[in-house]
């Protein structure tokens, strides 16, 4: 996998988010089957967001996958929410995917009062073997995971860190109906950093919806930099971007 120079993601556009989800889910399943036929196991990272719902619904009914040989991680989590809060990303992924198929192991971010220890532990788990696949999205402000503009470090030396969330990212959680009010959205999170995500061999980037159209355009055409962290996807040699007609509105 190359993370130098400038690549261009493979872009696929579909008439609606249901068709997008079917194709993305089928492609992820096919890649899992291919890798499991060649190696002992697969390690993969998942984003947690309503934008991923259709893709994960398709993936969880895919046939011919030995899930017992798949290890899962998720890429970010709020700090400060109760352990049983339904808004936690771990809870969302459990409901959307992890509770439906028998993964061999699922590593969940679980912030405690000792955030430094939480960060070290998760970083160590990620580093114990290569990451094969990442299933991610793009935020309305161009963030990937919770690496927000304008301060995202595209060359961050750390694999995991605690970050303060941009207002646009917090507002997106309300627009996605995950929270009733922006005041309810935590201001702090743990996130995988940009280089940690790009270390994976293959990226599946799933981005439906009109609210993402400007971020998608920027990701594909703006200069690579922290003003739109998703521009860094153009440094990766094997990234597929799945769009629907709405999110692709400004893409030629």
UniProtKB/TrEMBL annotation:
Residues 15-236 form the Glucosamine/galactosamine-6-phosphate isomerase domain. GO terms for cellular component: cytoplasm. Keywords: Carbohydrate metabolism. Gene3D superfamilies: 3.40.50.1360. It comes from the Bacteria. PANTHER family: GLUCOSAMINE-6-PHOSPHATE ISOMERASE, GLUCOSAMINE-6-PHOSPHATE ISOMERASE NAGB. This is Glucosamine-6-phosphate deaminase. It comes from Kribbella amoyensis.
């Amino acid at each position: 996998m190359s993370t130098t120079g400038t690549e261009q993601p493979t872009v696929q556009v579909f008439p609606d988010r249901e068709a997008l989800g079917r194709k993305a889910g089928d492609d992820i399943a096919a890649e899992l089957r291919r890798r499991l036929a060649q190696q002992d196991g697969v390690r993969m990272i998942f984003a947690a967001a309503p934008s991923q719902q259709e893709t994960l619904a398709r993936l969880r009914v895919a046939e011919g996958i030995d899930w017992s040989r798949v290890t899962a991680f998720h890429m970010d989590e709020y700090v400060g929410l109760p352990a049983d809060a339904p808004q936690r990303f771990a809870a969302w992924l459990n409901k959307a995917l992890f509770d439906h198929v028998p993964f061999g192991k699922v590593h969940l971010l679980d912030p405690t009062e000792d955030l430094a220890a939480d960060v070290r532990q998760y970083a160590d788990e990620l580093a114990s073997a290569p990451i094969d696949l990442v299933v991610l999205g793009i935020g309305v402000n161009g963030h990937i995971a919770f690496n927000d503009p304008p301060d995202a470090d595209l060359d961050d030396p750390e694999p995991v860190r605690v970050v303060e969330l941009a207002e646009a990212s917090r507002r997106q959680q309300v627009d996605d109906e995950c929270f009733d009010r922006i005041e309810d959205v935590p201001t702090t999170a743990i996130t995988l950093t940009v280089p940690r995500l790009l270390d994976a061999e293959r990226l599946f980037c799933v981005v439906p919806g009109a609210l993402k159209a400007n971020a998608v355009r920027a990701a594909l055409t703006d200069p690579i930099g922290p003003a739109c962290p998703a521009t860094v996807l153009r440094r990766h040699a094997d990234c597929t971007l799945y769009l629907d007609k709405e999110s692709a509105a400004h893409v030629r």
